[in-house]
Amino acid sequence: GRHGRDAIAERFAESYKTLTARRRHVLTNFLILEDGETEALVQSYITLYLIKDDQLELHLIGVYRDRVIIEDGEWKILTREATMDTPYTPPDKSGAKSGTYDADRRRRED
Fold first, then answer.
1. DSSP 88
2. Residues 51-75 as b or e (16 or more Cβ within 10 Å = b)
């Protein structure tokens, strides 16, 4: 997969061009699982809503685990592991099964 901040931003920008529903990714309940001077592991809950034709729909819930590091004096995400509690089945792009995924969107088999 692509790596780095610019590659990730480019992937999302290209992906969003074909979407017909607006998305709202709501992250809540942040918890620091590991804390260090220059690196930490942070967990949060993801709730994804889709809005189409003025209708709001809940489409996904899950958990993010982000490995963050200090770079140039700022905290930045190094890696993200996403566990989806429900299958992701949007009407305007391919979906994914529930499960745990790494940053390259590879599903981990438990």
1. B
2. eeeeeeeebbbbbbbbbbeeeeeee
Kindly state the tokens that stand for 4: 């780095």
Q: Are 82 and 67 in contact (CB under 8 A)?
A: no
In whole angstroms, what is the distance from residue 10 CA to residue 31 CA? 29
Cα 32 from Cα 34, distance rounded (Å): 6
| Residue pLDDT, tens place only, 44-91 | 999 999 998 999 999 999 999 999 999 999 999 888 899 999 888 878
Q: Please say whether the beta carbons of 59 and 88 come within 8 A.
A: yes
Beta bridge partners of 5: none
What is the separation of C-alpha 108 from the centre of its chain, rounded to a whole number of angstroms?
15
CB of 43 closer than 8 Å to CB of 63: yes
Residue 59 and residue 90 in contact, taking contact as beta carbons nearer than 8 Å: yes
Cβ atoms of 42 and 68 closer than 8 Å: yes
Looking up tokens 């981990």, which residue turns up? 108
